[in-house]
């Protein structure tokens, strides 16, 4: 059940129980969560690179279906070893819906957009709009408050995203289908995050994530078979990319996201995604040799500043 006021973080809950002033508990909670936040940004950023590499060997929906299936089956095996019961009834339905939105709609749309020519860096920047869209949805649906300072941080960060997009982007009619898929992916993660927070806040990480990934795999399997004819080349170079995208991006990345969502407000967690474009650009330069121009660098710095500002506000 979501309360009318924003959910308390772990440090805030401890302070409420013990009577310690909130200002004393908050810095410890932030410091303790720092590794998880850094890991979320790096892991999520690597997903754009694994997607770029994976599309060399598989069509977008086929790649997504394989990614979700491998990850879901791995988690299902872990749940079986732990003798965990799978969710049933209404809880199962809620988990499946959130999984389809966060996993299937978001990532298959990202892959489809990049397959149509949208660079991985631009894809990351478009998904970087997620903090604003998720925060706007969380206000009426989750009754979260977005303070003036937090809103300023979001706007500054989005301004950085826009500045970075402005460099080297040549939009044409040929770009519109790919950008349309990226917009669909943005809507998927925004709606899915809010749905997850509203209906799946007590999700068991292993069995719950297994259900979500397998549901996403089944949904994406339809276009993979009907539209693409299961187009994939199982080469030696493809397997490491598939395993990284499945086990690291899907299992670890989404697990970190849900863990932070259980402890903090949607607006605060989603603002971390404004760091993803800078991280993606850095990884792209190191791994793929992609160039970072001055406007892009300035925009990425501005987006980072906006994220830091958004994280300074009180929830």
UniProtKB/TrEMBL annotation:
Main subcellular localisation: membrane
Transmembrane segments: 61-81, 93-114, 120-139, 151-169, 175-194, 206-226, 238-260, 272-289, 295-313
Keyword Iron included in the entry's annotation: no
InterPro entries for this protein: AA-Vitamin_Transporters, EamA_dom, EmrE-like
Keywords: Membrane, Transmembrane, Transmembrane helix
Membrane topology: Multi-pass membrane protein
Residue ranges of the region described as Disordered: 1-22
CC annotations in GO: membrane
Compartments in which it is found: Membrane
Domain EamA: 39-165, 178-309
Coiled coil region boundaries: none
Domain of life: Bacteria
Protein family (similarity comment): Belongs to the EamA transporter family.
Name of the protein this chain belongs to: DMT family transporter
Organism field: Streptomyces nigrescens
């Amino acid at each position: 059940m979501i309360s009318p006021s924003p959910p308390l973080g772990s440090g805030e809950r401890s302070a409420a129980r013990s009577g310690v002033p909130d200002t004393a508990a908050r810095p410890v909670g932030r410091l303790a969560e720092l590794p998880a936040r850094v890991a979320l940004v790096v892991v999520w950023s690597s997903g754009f690179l694994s997607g770029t590499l994976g599309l060399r060997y598989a069509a977008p929906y086929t790649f997504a279906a394989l990614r979700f299936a491998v990850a879901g089956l791995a988690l299902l095996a872990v749940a079986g070893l732990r003798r965990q019961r799978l969710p049933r009834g209404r809880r199962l339905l809620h988990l499946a819906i959130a999984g389809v939105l966060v996993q299937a709609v978001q990532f298959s749309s990202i892959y489809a957009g990049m397959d149509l020519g949208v660079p991985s860096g631009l894809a990351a920047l478009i998904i970087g709009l997620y903090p604003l869209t998720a925060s706007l949805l969380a206000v009426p649906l989750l009754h979260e408050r977005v303070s003036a300072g937090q809103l300023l941080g979001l706007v500054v960060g989005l301004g950085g995203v826009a500045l970075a997009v402005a460099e080297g982007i040549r939009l044409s009619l040929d770009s519109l289908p790919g950008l349309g898929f990226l917009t669909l992916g943005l809507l998927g993660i925004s709606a899915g995050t809010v749905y997850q927070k509203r209906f799946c806040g007590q999700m068991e990480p292993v069995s719950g994530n297994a259900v979500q990934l397998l549901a996403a795999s089944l949904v994406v399997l339809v276009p993979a078979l009907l539209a693409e004819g299961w187009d994939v080349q199982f080469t030696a170079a493809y397997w490491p990319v598939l395993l990284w995208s499945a086990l690291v991006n899907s299992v670890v990345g989404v697990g970190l996201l849900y863990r932070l969502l259980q402890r903090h407000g949607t607006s605060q967690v989603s603002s971390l995604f404004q760091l993803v474009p800078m991280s993606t650009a850095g990884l792209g330069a190191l791994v793929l040799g992609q160039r970072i121009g001055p406007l892009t660098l300035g925009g990425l710095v501005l987006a980072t500043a906006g994220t830091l500002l958004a994280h300074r506000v009180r929830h």
